[in-house]
Design brief:
By secondary structure, this protein is mainly alpha-helical. The protein has helices at 2-24, 27-53, 61-81, 87-101, 114-138, 144-169, 185-205, 218-246, 261-282. It has one domain. It contains nine helices and no strands.
Length: 284
């Protein structure tokens, strides 16, 4: 019951806050959103590095934070300040150079940890940071505030409906996926239905943004919602594997009722590139 109350408080505080930032602070191509993504990516990378350290894979906290924030920061420079687009690749390559070259000057006794540290460095650059840059790049679309808002609504609707359906109808159909035995078929179905309906709602209520040139737009909205919701569900399961490997329940304890930053970003990070390219193909 306590967890349920905390989850509701998190939902009813977090969703309006995120929506308010998107709608009320659109200046410089959603600069406020972009800065928030940089910060969340750095914190998520810190949590990821902490999970990796539990498996004796060393990566220092400052390194993790800088590497995790590097790609979102580069994307922010491109989208909000007009720096040329290749800066994202440049920053990624510089991060890779640092990871490789720092081993050259390491102490001899630390050579045995180098391969693990190298893998950890690439991991925190990619997740959640590189996945999150696709939210930043959404700001370049026309009516970006509506597009980003619908992305958040689809992802959150999927997560919330999956939790509710699992609580109500999942008692006899759990344990299908070993990585997360509490997940149920009913939860997956409920989340998929919610994301599909939210995608169709985008077509109905924001036709100026979510419409196709030929035929009905509703199937396109349903497909956008389904693919984004599916990616979010897989992101949630993927993070469950990481936590199970590290033998922890939550990635951290920063957010009441949710756990750590990664516990809230897992679905969003995985869904972001799928939503971005699906919107591009279906509606842009």
């Amino acid at each position: 019951m306590k967890t349920t109350i905390k989850r509701f408080l998190s939902f009813f505080v977090g969703v309006p806050l995120a929506g308010g930032i998107v709608l009320l602070l659109p200046q410089k191509n959603q600069l406020a959103v972009n800065i928030l993504i940089v910060l969340l990516s750095a914190l998520g990378a810190l949590e990821f590095a902490n999970l990796l350290r539990k498996k004796n894979i060393p990566l220092s906290a400052p390194e993790a934070a800088v590497l995790g924030a590097s790609c979102p920061l580069a994307a922010t420079l491109t989208v909000s300040f007009g720096v040329y687009n290749e800066i994202i690749l440049v920053i990624f390559v510089l991060g890779a150079f640092w990871l490789f070259l720092s081993g050259i000057f390491a102490r001899k006794e630390s050579f045995g940890d180098f391969a693990g540290r190298l893998a950890a460095g690439f991991a925190v650059m990619i997740y959640p940071g590189f996945f999150m840059i696709w939210i930043i790049k959404m700001a370049l679309f026309s009516r970006a505030n509506m597009i980003i808002l619908m992305f958040l609504l689809i992802t959150i609707a999927n997560d919330s409906a999956a939790w509710a359906a699992g609580m109500l109808f999942g008692a006899g159909n759990r344990g299908i996926i070993p990585a997360s035995p509490n997940k149920s078929v009913a939860g997956f179905a409920g989340g998929a239905a919610a994301s599909i309906l939210t995608g169709m709602g985008a077509v109905i209520f924001i036709p100026a943004v979510f419409s196709v040139s030929r035929g009905s737009s509703l199937p396109a909205g349903a497909l956008l919602g389904f693919l984004s919701g599916l990616a979010g569900s897989l992101g949630d399961l993927g993070e469950s594997v990481i936590k199970r490997s590290s033998q922890v329940k939550d990635s951290g304890n920063l957010i009441p009722g949710r756990g750590g930053i990664l516990d809230s970003l897992d679905s969003i990070a995985f869904a972001a590139p799928i939503y971005y390219f699906s919107f591009l193909l279906l509606f842009a």
